[in-house]
Amino acid sequence: MIAAYQEQHHALAERLNHLVDATWNRPAWLIRGEQEIILRDSIGGLLWIALFDAVHHRGQLSTYIRPMGGKVPSIYGPSGDAPARQ
After folding, report:
1. Which of 24, 30, 41, 53 has the fewest CB atoms within 10 Å, i.e. is most exposed?
2. What is the three-state SS of 13-77?
3. CA quadruple 75, 53, 14, 24: dihedral positive or negative?
């Protein structure tokens, strides 16, 4: 699963790096199912929403790690389990 994520991440990053400025402002929409449009914005706007959603869920998952006996990684900065480097 990690290899698939890394492959897709690399492919998307390459595509985004080659977008011209005007493309970021083109209209786009998020579709659920066959045709139901659930969100309309620009390409750049939808990508910001996706980024914030990923950050939110990553933080959400970190709240489950410690009660299950794991170590919380430094997601947004140092954590109690992974302090800042001196």
Report:
1. 53
2. HHHHHCCCHHHHCCEEEEEECCCEEEEEEEHHHHHHHHHHHHHHHHHHHHHHHHHHCCCCCCCCC
3. negative
Q: Quick one: tokens of 70?
A: 């794991």
List pLDDT tens digits, range 55-75.
888 778 888 888 888 887 777
| Tokens found for residue 85 | 């480097």
Residue whose entry in the numeric block shows the structure tokens 């998307």:
12
Residue 35, pLDDT above cutoff 90: no
- Residues β-bridged to residue 41: 28
User: pTM for the whole thing?
Assistant: 0.65
